[in-house]
Amino acid sequence: MAALKLKYISLAILVVQNASLILSIRYVRTLPGDRFFTTSAVVMAEVLKVLTCLLIILFQRKASCCYNSIVIQYKDTLKLAVPALIYTLQNNLQYVAISNLPAATFQVTYQLKILTTALFSVLMLRKSLSRIQWLSLLLLFAGVAIVQLEQEGKQKETTVTGPSQNYAKGLVAVIVSCLSSGFAGVYFEKILKGSSASVWMRNIQLGIFGTLLGLLGMWWNDGLAIAEKGFLFGYTPMVWGVIFNQAFGGLLVAVVVKYADNILKGFATSFSIIVSTVVSVYLFGFHVDLLFTLGAGLVIGAVYMYSLPKAAAPSPSTATLSSSSHSLADGAGDSETEAFLPKSVLVK
Predict the structure, then answer these.
(1) Tens digit of each residue's pLDDT (9 = 90 or more) over 95-145
(2) Can you give the pLDDT at residue 282?
(3) 87, burial (CB in 10 Å: exposed 0-12, middle 13-18, buried 19+)
(4) Distance of CA 101 to CAs 86, 155, 160, 162, 190, Å?
(5) Helical packing angle, 2-30 and 262-284, nearest 10°
(6) Considering only 124-133, 150-159, 235-244, 251-260, which range has the smallest mean pLDDT?
(7) Alpha helices (runs of H) in the chain, residue ranges in sequence order
(8) What are the distances in angstroms from CA 281 to CA 95, 161, 221?
(9) Cα 75–80–83 angle (5° rounding)?
(10) What are φ and ψ of residue 102, in 5° steps?
(11) 111, 274 in Cβ contact below 8 A?
(12) Is 293 exposed, middle or buried, given 0-12, 13-18 or 19+ CB atoms closer than 10 A?
């Protein structure tokens, strides 16, 4: 009974975190008035994440382990520079995408990261996919394509986006974000196989590089404007809410995800698409037609199908035991990998 309650609580947290971040970013980026610098928001989220993880490690009285993992084992820390760079790019691209795309359209299109992650897993980790998973990837691609066709037709009929929004720019941003998400997740899993470092330690290592790279990107893109107006220009309570959601939401998911199996995570992602669409109708005046419903339905079904466990092939008992232990090890690696994804937006 307690385990069932934990699953339902996990489901609720995953859905709320998934949907709320996208909707809140879309809301603050479409409000009239001064706009905050998204590059500064990415840096602030990384700083808060690092400080939170440091406090947790200090509370656990493992400060010496922190020094040892980051400084003494510096080669292990340097391995995280590449995924940190990709995640920083991805977090910035998500702001660009959500600023230029309807929240529901972004939520559906962003599921392409499942496709890119699967393809990179096959190419880089030599993982095998079941027939159902390959079918689900085809359905996923078809669903996203239908949604894009629907949006393109809507763009031709009437001006849906505001004058400061560019649908093509948002679409390119979300596609590049999906590619970077897939590659970073698989690369992260590959270099950290068998690592014994804790979730909090890995987030500190990632956050250090993420903060430095984020500051570099902020200086390159908005340096002059920030020097003139200030780092916190345009920050409102709602903007702070978005930043806290991005920083702490991902850490919360990292803790909760251990209680959620793949089916539950797939269901949470699917349900968050529905929540985002329904809220977008009332909050942003988003129009849902038959073509969007068909495309989103295919994506939701594909996400759920992909999360289904593979059918176990009959084998001798010893082979079964070996396969089970290997599967558990892989699962642990996957869930740990997911703990460091920017989570910002969606659970795998």
Answers:
(1) 999 999 998 899 899 989 889 989 998 998 888 888 898 999 999 999 999
(2) 86
(3) buried
(4) 22, 12, 10, 10, 33
(5) 30
(6) 150-159
(7) 2-30, 38-59, 63-67, 74-78, 81-100, 103-109, 112-124, 131-157, 167-191, 199-229, 237-256, 262-284, 290-307, 317-340
(8) 21, 14, 33
(9) 155
(10) -60, 145
(11) no
(12) middle
Token code pair at residue 279: 């809220």
Q: What angle do CA 18, 159, 294 make, to 5 degrees?
A: 50
Q: Which residue reads 């529901």 in tokens?
A: 104
| Token representation of residue 123 | 């190419």
Q: Are 246 and 344 in contact (CB under 8 A)?
A: yes
The identity of residue 71, as a single letter, is V
For residue 231, the 8-state DSSP code is T
Q: What tokens were used for 173?
A: 């941003």
Whole-model pTM: value is 0.80
Query: Token match 């499942």: residue?
Result: 114
Tokens of 314: 């009959």
